[in-house]
Write a structure and sequence with these properties.
heterodimer; A: mainly alpha; two-stranded antiparallel ribbon; 23 helices; 2 strands; 72% helix; globular
């Protein structure tokens, strides 16, 4: 098995080193690193802006680039958290807690150095995990019929909506909304127009770039405009030579990195738990097992190493269910999956055998990209630090223009611009009502395939819904769904009973608390 | 009876989700429902909308039960930014109108300029400067490098 994996990997490097692919991979990680550093523009918005540009590119190059933006942004996001104390990228919010105190002590460079080392270790482990695990998953998934696919998707959707941030019920509501938006357009089997209200523009469905840019671009700008206070920039002078951690630092940070890697790679495998949760769990774990937990929050190097490593191993691992099963774990993965679908590639277990260039090329490009990122981040740290000075007031008006021209260029049609605007305003209303709109994208991307498989499964069983619990694999997924629901009810009742008691004995509560404090931003 | 801001927000959320659900059901029923074995185009939309209505009801009920305001702070303390919101909404509209009748150059300049007026720290000079810089960058990328079909100035400079 190892030898086939190795020969596939060699093939992948061949793909990744094709000059065109190498170039787009570099563009991806560079842009990703850039927007990661800039406070206020996230990877989802950037990937959606770039999405229309990829329509004319070859599928491999397009995916390498979009993926590069995603993991490149994680390197940049850490800089922003450590030096400015701005948790602008959710996975790095927890890094602020110990990263910024280190900066204040003049050890910001060391914190960043540890971050880069940890990132590379975490990412490497995530990639290895993907090389060995994805083909195994595929072998299992190839046996799946419509009923299994359907209940697996249900599990993915349910996990994606309940395990994320904020109220699980509201998460489910957002997933359902996404499924509903996915219905718009022609019915896949009979061609009946649904939810189009007679508009020709909606006949092909809602444009994924318009939806994503509306809810993650415009809505987010409306939310953040004029909220960035004066940012403390007096500590953000870091030079290359400040970044080298001492032997003592490494001795402390290394075990934390290993633990972070494990947490991150586990979180990657549970659908719905992406890098954000991984980093919070890693931090909470580190604090829990520490002999002196009171040092956390005052510049403990482990508090930087563990969550950053976890983030990166989870970011790479996130691609496993996406590429092998066609089930994205979070909104960013949903977008990358959407890009594949636009390229005419059917995601799912057959992807690896039908498009080995995409799968193995992507994996090889992860190595290439991560090495490029280390090169970009260590000697060139001074340049990124300078970019931190770009204020938000220059950023968002430029981004709105790129959004407009981006969606316009999808079909050279001004209608999409109005679509973005409508989703932007609607998305902002949802934000103000306390919804987290990320699951919308998950539902939207999975919706059409979910409906198709649901209808096919019911057709095969002659209209008997028992088919979903009759078949063992499908029954297992349905069982997991039920467990998720029961757990949520349990948490709700428990939270209600212990409302007035300060009871933080159990790690889930600690994580939830940390995440809520990160959310306050 | 006065309602706490948390409850008011949760009620509004629940009602919004319910309304979307009810709307979806009424629209979905217009399409052929089919049978369980042979589902028509209306079945899935009605199913999803029905679930949505149900979740909307649950949101209202759980808000009443829980009254757990521990995680409630994100929309509090946030002042209304009507000018900024107006500018952000106006920007894409300007882009379309100027783009439709003027071309890419006025559309770029106009949309960036208007959007930037929303920030309270932005001076007029900075707005003009930013719009100018982005116009140059935008034109070089989209008109000269990518050559998207969008005249720079309609009728004058294609």
């Amino acid at each position: 098995m190892i030898s086939t994996a190795l020969s596939d990997l060699v093939y992948g490097f061949g793909v990744a080193f094709e000059p065109q692919n190498l170039f787009w991979c570099f563009v991806g990680v560079f842009v990703g690193n850039l927007i990661g550093v800039l406070p206020g523009l996230g990877p989802i918005a950037t990937i959606s802006i770039l999405l229309p540009l990829t329509f004319t590119m070859k599928p491999v190059a397009a995916i390498l680039m979009l993926a590069g933006v995603y993991y490149g942004a994680q390197y940049g996001g850490a800089i922003c958290s450590v030096l400015l104390n701005l948790p602008c990228h959710p996975p790095h919010a927890v890094t602020c807690l110990d990263g910024f105190p280190m900066t204040k002590q003049g050890r910001g460079g060391v914190a960043l150095g540890i971050t880069v080392i940890g990132s590379f270790i975490g990412a490497s482990f995530g990639i290895v995990e993907m090389i060995f695990l994805a083909p195994v998953l595929v072998k299992v998934a190839l046996e799946f019929g419509p009923a299994e696919i359907c209940s697996l998707m249900l599990l993915g959707l349910l996990a994606g909506s309940t395990l994320g941030r904020g109220s699980p019920l509201k998460g489910v509501a957002m997933t359902l909304l996404g499924l509903m938006l996915g219905i718009v357009g022609a019915d896949p089997q009979e061609g009946t127009m649904r939810f189009t209200f007679g508009s020709q523009h909606l006949a092909d469905g809602i444009e994924i770039a318009a939806l994503a840019l509306g809810i993650f671009g415009i809505a987010d700008f409306m939310n953040s405009v004029n909220t960035f206070g004066k940012v403390e920039r007096k500590y953000s002078h870091v030079r290359f030579r400040d970044m080298r951690p001492s032997k003592q630092d490494m001795k402390e940070a290394f075990p934390a990195m290993i633990r972070g890697t494990l947490v991150g790679s586990l979180c990657a495998l549970i659908p719905g738990t992406g890098p954000t949760i991984a980093s919070f769990v890693a931090y909470a774990t580190e604090k829990k097992i520490s002999k002196n937990p009171e040092t956390f929050g005052t510049g403990n190097i482990k508090g930087v190493a563990a969550p950053e490593t976890a983030t990166h191993s989870s970011v790479q691992g996130d691609f496993i269910p996406t590429m092998s099963l066609g089930i994205p774990g979070d909104a960013t993965m949903a977008l990358i999956l959407g890009a594949l679908i636009i390229q005419g590639i059917q995601p799912g277990p057959t992807l690896i055998s039908e498009h080995p260039d995409i799968f193995w090329g992507l994996i090889a490009s992860f190595w290439v990209g991560n090495i490029l990122l280390v090169i970009l981040n260590v000697p060139l740290i001074g340049i990124w630090v300078k970019l931190l000075m770009i204020p938000y007031r220059y950023l968002y008006p430029s981004a709105i223009f790129f959004i407009c021209i981006g969606v316009y260029s999808v079909n050279n049609d001004f209608f999409q611009v109005f679509e973005v605007l409508a989703f932007g305003v609607f998305g902002y209303i949802l934000l103000r009502l306390g919804f987290h709109p990320a699951p919308i994208l998950l539902g939207f991307v999975l919706g059409p395939r979910f409906e198709e498989n649901f209808r096919r499964a019911m057709l095969l069983s002659g209209g008997d819904p028992v088919t979903f619990v009759d078949r063992p694999i499908s029954a297992f997924f349905v069982f997991l769904c039920a467990v998720l629901l029961v757990l949520q009810v349990f948490f709700f009742v428990r939270g209600r009973m212990s409302r007035n008691r300060a009871e933080f004995d159990f790690p889930g509560v600690e994580v939830q608390r940390l995440m809520n404090s990160g959310e306050a931003e | 009876m006065s309602v706490s801001p948390f409850l008011r927000r949760e009620y509004l959320s629940g009602v919004l989700i319910m309304l979307i659900g009810v709307f979806g059901i009424s629209e979905g029923y217009k399409y052929n429902m089919g049978t369980l074995a042979q589902m028509g185009p209306g079945f899935f939309p009605v199913l999803i909308s029905g679930l949505m209505t149900f979740v909307g009801v649950l949101i209202v009920i759980s808000a009443r039960l829980a009254q757990d305001e521990a995680d409630f702070h994100d929309s509090e303390g946030k002042s209304s930014q009507w000018l900024a919101w107006g500018c952000i909404i106006a920007s894409p509209i300007i882009f379309v109108v100027f783009g439709r009748y003027g071309g890419l150059l006025p559309a770029t300049f106009g949309s960036v300029f208007v959007a930037s007026l929303g920030d309270k720290d932005m001076t007029l000079k900075q707005s003009v400067g930013l719009a100018g810089v982005i116009t140059v960058i935008g034109l070089s990328i989209f008109a000269f490098f990518l050559k998207i079909p969008f005249p720079v100035i309609r009728g004058v400079w294609q």
